[in-house]
Structures are given as structure tokens and as C-alpha cells.
Amino acid sequence: MQYLDFEQDLADLDAQIEELKKNNTQRGIDISKELDRITTKKEKALKEAYKNLNAWQKSNVARHENRPHTLDYIKALIKDFTVLSGDRAFADDHAIIGGIGKLGDQTVMIIGHEKGNDTESRLYHNFGMAKPEGYRKAIRLMKLAEQFNIPVITLVDTAGAFPGLEGEERGQGQAIASCTDTCLNLKVPLISVIIGEGGSGGAIALAAGNAVLMLSNSIYSVISPEGCASILWKDFKYAPKAAEILHLTAQDLLKLGVIDEIIEEPLGGAHRYPMETMLHVQDALEKYLSKFKGMTSSDLVHHRTEKFMNMTRLEN
């Protein structure tokens, strides 16, 4: 388990628990009372650590390497999943995973960013940063879902679109714009969940849904705190300050009307309790799938359009 800066007390307590268990195995000593005492102390420390996380701390939790990613959600929640690959024009982008399966009894098209969970898989999935062919694959899958009247679920978890030269050469901006446009005009329900990091155009390209949900420790912003700090102050050390002014937390964005609902994570974050977190996400997805099930194609498009247009309207 990777411990964040504000979790040092937890790291120390976990080390004590492991040492007690090790000694118990070796010497056969009764450690139950001492183990209960330290476990209780750890629970209090966990509550204290996560009681009032600031924006920068939430950014670090959102990026935690042990948070469940798209493939974890698919494995845990989607039955009979069939992966669909390629944009039918250039290549298959491994940063975006997509395919058809069943969430409960409902057939869905699921599309999401995949960051990977170790060095090899992170390189394979390009750390979740899609190239143009990734967004064109997403467009193809959304239109396929529309053709067969299948609702679409998108899972957003990316620092942003791939910033390299080949992405620009192959039309990164156009691909993101077309993917966003496809989301907005999709004639089937589209539910988007920010499960970790929602960065810039790479995130909004998959997040223009009828409902946009966020896990409670996830973030969603037009630029990363580090990128903002490098532009405004020419120094990465101001990233914590940038995180505050970006209003990138789920709680900030719910107040601003950018998202529709916060899905609560267990105390300590999704990285500690991945299965419980994923089941919370499933409950929210089933609720919104039921909500939009009876809407006509034109009503779905109108609902989605009005939702995003309302964000641009200033109150008198």
C-alpha cells in the first residue's frame, strides 16, 4: 500500500500491527488486547486524516495507484463483457477500453480510460492518456450502441489527452471535439462517472452525459494543479494553491452544478476498499439507467443539451 503524505500516522500504525502479527506467529504470544488497542487507534487516525481533506490532498487520493480502474470495474461489475477494439481508421488505442456487457440485467456499452496498475501495464495503456484513435474508437462504440439502442456508461480517469507530437499530427483537437459532440447528440442514455482523475479535454470528451457522477475523492478540472501552477507561477511547488483555486473537488463541482451526484467512498478512500466502492458505483449507475430508461431519443438529447447550456447561463 502506498501511503500519502498526510497518512504517515496510519503507516506507522499498520507497521505496528504487522510487527505484532509477525511476533505472534513466531512466539505464540497472545496479542489480541494489544492488537485491538492499536486497531482502534488506527480507526481514529483514519477518521482524523480523512475528516477535512483539502483540494491538494484529494488530488493525491484521486491519483492513488491502488484505486480501482476501468478494467477493475469491468471485471467486478460487468457480466459477459466483450471487448471491442480499434477506430477502423488507424489503430487500437489501449488508453481507452470499450465493449458490451451486462450491468445486472441491463445490456450496456461501457467505455473508459485505463491507467494500468504496474509499470508494464501503465506503459501499455499510456497512463490513460488517449491519442486521437482512442477518441475515434469511443465515437465508433457510442454510435454502435445508438444503433442497437444500448445505453452508454463512461468511466473517466485520465490526466488528460496524450500531449505528444503524434497526437497533434493525427488531429487530437478534432478527435476530442468530435467525441464531445457525439456524447451531446447521442440518442441513448449516457451516464458518466469520474472514478479518479478527470483532466482537461481528455476527460470531457467522455463526460458529456445525461448524468455526470463523481466519486467523493475524485477530481475534475480544466487543467492539472501542476499545469496551472507552471503557467501562473512558473513553479510546480504552487500546485497545492492551484488545486484550491481550480475548485476541482466533487464537493465544489456539485455546488457549481457541474455534476449531478457524489458517490461516497468508504472512509479511507477507494484504494483501501475497492470492492465496496465499485458496488456504490453500481448502485448509482442502476439508479440513473432506470431514470432515463423511458425517455425518447429527442428527450435525451434535449436533456443533455439543456444540462450543459445551463452551466453557461449567468443568474441575474
Task: Provide an overview of this structure.
The protein has 2 domains: 5-52; 59-310, 2-enoyl-CoA Hydratase, Chain A, domain 1. Helix content is 50%, strand content 16%. It has 14 helices and 8 strands. Strands 1, 2, 3, 4, 5, 6, 7 and 8 form an 8-stranded mixed sheet that branches. The model has no long low-confidence stretch (mean pLDDT 91).
Write the SSE topology.
Blueprint: H1 8-27, H2 32-51, H3 55-62, H4 70-77, E1 78-83, E2 96-103, E3 106-113, H5 119-124, H6 132-147, E4 152-158, H7 165-169, H8 172-184, E5 190-199, H9 200-204, E6 211-215, E7 219-221, H10 225-232, H11 239-246, H12 250-256, E8 261-263, H13 274-292, H14 297-310
Parallel strand pairs: 3-4, 4-5, 5-6, 5-7, 6-8
Antiparallel strand pairs: 1-2, 2-3
Helix pairs in contact: 1-2, 3-11, 6-8, 10-11
Summarize, please.
With 316 residues, the protein is an alpha/beta fold. The protein is 50% helix and 16% strand. Strands 1, 2, 3, 4, 5, 6, 7 and 8 form an eight-stranded mixed beta sheet that branches.
- Beta-strand level of the residues, as a percent range? 15-25%
CATH architecture label of the largest domain: Alpha-Beta Complex
Fourth-level CATH superfamily of the largest domain: 2-enoyl-CoA Hydratase, Chain A, domain 1
CATH topology of the largest domain: 2-enoyl-CoA Hydratase, Chain A, domain 1
**What ranges have pLDDT less than 50 throughout 5 or more consecutive residues?**
none
Helix segment count?
14
SSE run: HHHHEEEHHEHHEHEEHHHEHH
Shape annotation: globular
The helix fraction, in percent, is 40-55%
Q: Structural class, judged by helices and strands?
A: alpha/beta
Average pLDDT figure: 91
Radius of gyration: 21 Å
- The end-to-end distance, rounded to whole angstroms, is 50 Å
Main sheet characteristics:
8 strands, mixed
> How many discrete structural domains?
2
Q: Assembly state here?
A: single chain
